[in-house]
Structure formats: C-alpha cells, structure tokens
Amino acid sequence: MGLLEATFLGMAAVSAAAFDGWNDFNGVARVTNAAHEVLFQKEYGFLNIPYKDPMPADAIFPVASNTKLYVAVALYQLQEAGKVDLNASIADYLNAKDLKNFGMHGTRKYCPKVAGSSECQVVRFVDLLAMSSGIPNPPFRDYFLPYAGSIGLTVKLFINQDLLFIPGTEYDYSNSAFILAGYFVEKLSGKSLREYLQKHIISVLEQSSTEYDPYDYQLSMAGDRRKRVYEYYQYRDPKTHEIYATGECRDEFDLGTANGAGGVLSTVADEQLFYYTLFNFSKDAMGKPLLQDPRSLIDLVRPRMPTSPEQKGGYFWYAQGLLSLCNWSVDHEGCDVIPNIIGYEGGLMCVHTANLLDLHVHPAVMTSVYSSTVVFDVKKALVKKMQASKTGDFLEASDRWPQQMEVSKMAWKLHNEVLNQSKQREKMEWKVRGIILP
C-alpha cells in the first residue's frame, strides 16, 4: 500500500496473456508517437462513479511514483548548474543544521551504517536515484501523516535507521530515498520543491494541467480542479464479474509526507509531453530544454541496478527515477547506450498510472494507461465477514485479494496491439552523430 513499487518488471513479453479487458476500467488510455500523432485515445468509465460524470480525456491524476522522474531531472539540472556532484557522498552536502532538522541533535557528520557494523557507509546521490542506497522505507501509514511542515521532518522518520545493505550493491525500492532526494533539491536550489519543479520543469514544458502538490489542492490549483479524478475501491464477484460494492478511497488525498516520492498531479497528455521532450535523443536535442549536457540524459537512462537478482539481459533495470529495458535479447549481456524501452508505473492505494515509451520503433511510440479505481475479485460473503470483524485490518486483508486493472499489463497489451495495427515496427538504428557519449 502507499506508494507502490513499479510493476513493469518482467512484462516485456506480454501480448496475449490472460487479460480481463476494460469492462470495469475507470480511466484514460492514450497512445501517441513522437510525430505528435494520436494513434489511440479512449476514456473509460466515470470521473465520479456515484454521479456518473464521464471520464474526460484531460482528467487530472495523482501520478504517484512517476513524480520520481521529476525529482531526478531536478538533481541533474542542479548538477549542471555546478551545485552538486551526483557521484559524491550525500554526507558531504549535509551540515549540522540539516542533521538537527532530521532530529540528530549534536551529530556532526552523517554516518549511515549497516546493522551489526560500526563502519560508516557512503551513500551517493546516484545510489538514492537508483534504488540502491539501502535506506529503508518507513511504515506505509506514515505517508499519510498530516503536513509535517518541511521535508526534513519527514526525513526524520527514517534517516537514523540501519541501512539494509552496503550502498550500491543491491536493489531495494525505497520511497525514502526520493524523499531525501527531494530534500536536497530544496537545499541546493534554495526553493521549495514545489517552486523548483514549477519553474524549471513544468513551466518550461508548458504543462498546463500539471503541478506538484501532495496536499490535494491545499496550496493552489493547476488546470481545472473539477477534472481531478475521484478514487474508488470496487468489489467484484469472481465468477459473475458483477460489481456489488463501490467505496470511495479517501485516505491518500493528503499524501503530505511523501514529498519527492510522489506529489505530482498531471494528465496523460502532459506526462507524454514530459517524456517526448526529455527522452529526445536526436543530435540537436538530447533532453533540451530540460537538460543542457548530453551526458546528463545518458546518465539518467543508464541502467544501474537489475530489478531482480537472477536478471540478465532483456528485462528492466532501474536507472535514475525510471526503468530502462536494455534490449530484447535475453542472450545479450549488458545494455546499449540508449535503452529500447523506458517505463514506469505510479501506484497509490487506488490510482495507478503507467507510462511506456518505446524507442525501439521509429518514430518513438508512447502508451499511457491511467486508472482511478482498484477492483478486487472477492466473494461477497468474505467482504461482509471482514467488515463485521472486530479484529484484524481490513486494508491489509484486501491486499491479499486478487486485483484486476493491472495497468502495466494493460499498457503492454494496448501498446503491442496499436503497434501491430499501425505498422510502426520499423527498427531504428541508434547513432547519435556529433555527440560524445561517456
């Protein structure tokens, strides 16, 4: 629960896998290409289920972990501005005032340790962005605490805990790492994370319906607030597929403590604009105007950590705030400079937003599937039993029930179908002439 780990892992071969269809889907699906052609767009279900308000094409979703890419880009921008070396230890950029803000009074130097060891470990910025820092997550319910007043007070929840492993040696999905990364964006820029993202990313791209606001419009409002999706649980009979109960999902509206790990509100179109601008590997673009140095873009997408220990080639690796698919061949060790696929999924308790950018075809094609409803396949009698129970946790129990509307699988299936129908599977030769790549 809370901000969920991206679930693209191992989905590259999905084309005709078991798939329930779109009958109970509430959300938006859109496929476009880099030539600005809309290959597919459809809105499903309702913005507000009880009132039957149709889902608009420009519905605004909390994109959850898709926020992490914004934070990663911000840190690369700050590195280009000479304010940080992302290969350096984060301890070199923390002073006594920072540590006091984290509740570490009297501490002069940040000294993270693995349990059972007295040795100070080095956590680099690139370790934070690659999910290889070893910094553990706080309990998921802590994400829903009231507005703490600063990201530093949120960092206080986890910064003093033992590392899970030596930084840079393993992969472990850490929202805490990106909360800390968000803190550094504020510290290095002298601006709030909201102000920085608005000025240096959102306004630059002219994303008219996007803003960073983890407090559900308590700060201000982007676009039309009436188009912000409502979020729901639905319960469906496993045999008849009848929806027999709908409940509003309200807990996550004030995701106040998850600064940096989540907090961006956006539309499908605005997110696709972000991807197409940033991941433009043509000679004269290379991430401009968001990034100025071609090496920043290459470092951003460079596969860093395999997302499973047994993984070799052909699957997703964690890069910097995103997932990169190295290549299609499972026999190929290592990765090309430019990945075939860039993708990510943001997950909250009820909203899931999947982005899939295919650089393997020409022109590049991007598929986005955003959902505002979680559907559980569970017998009515079991739900009634849990509701009547005087002990136990209903939400934790629901976590064990089969869920439909897996947007990552839906995105892969739609993506493959559209590519086949539009005959856009022409292979592309990756040669960025005139650019010296590290």
Structure, briefly:
It contains 11 helices and 16 strands. The protein is α+β, with helices and mostly antiparallel strands. The radius of gyration is 21 Å and the shape is globular.
By DSSP (H or I, 4+ residues per run), the number of helices equals: 11
Mean pLDDT: 81
CATH architecture assignment name: 3-Layer(aba) Sandwich
User: Percent helix among the residues?
Assistant: 10-25%
**Sheet of most strands:** 8 strands, antiparallel
Q: Give the terminus-to-terminus CA distance.
A: 39 Å
Descriptive keywords:
16% strand, three-stranded antiparallel β-sheet, eight-stranded antiparallel β-sheet, disordered N terminus, 25% helix, Beta-lactamase, single chain, alpha+beta, 438 residues
What do you see in this structure?
By secondary structure, this protein is an alpha+beta fold. It has one domain (27-422): DD-peptidase/beta-lactamase superfamily (Beta-lactamase). Helices cover 25% and strands 16% of the residues. The chain is built from 11 helices and 16 strands. The model is unreliable at 1-20, 328-332 and 425-438 (pLDDT under 50). It comes from Durusdinium trenchii. InterPro entries: Beta-lactam-related, Beta-lactam/transpept-like, Diverse_Enzym_Activities.
Sequence-ordered SSE layout with sheet pairings:
Elements: E1 27-33, E2 38-44, E3 46-48, E4 53-54, E5 61-62, H1 67-80, H2 96-101, H3 125-129, H4 151-155, H5 175-189, H6 193-205, E6 211-212, E7 232-236, E8 243-248, E9 264-266, H7 268-278, H8 294-301, E10 305-306, E11 316-318, E12 323-325, E13 341-347, E14 352-358, E15 365-371, E16 373-377, H9 380-388, H10 394-399, H11 407-422
Parallel strand pairs: 7-16
Antiparallel strand pairs: 1-2, 1-15, 3-4, 5-9, 6-9, 7-8, 10-11, 11-12, 12-13, 13-14, 14-15
Helix pairs in contact: 1-5, 1-6
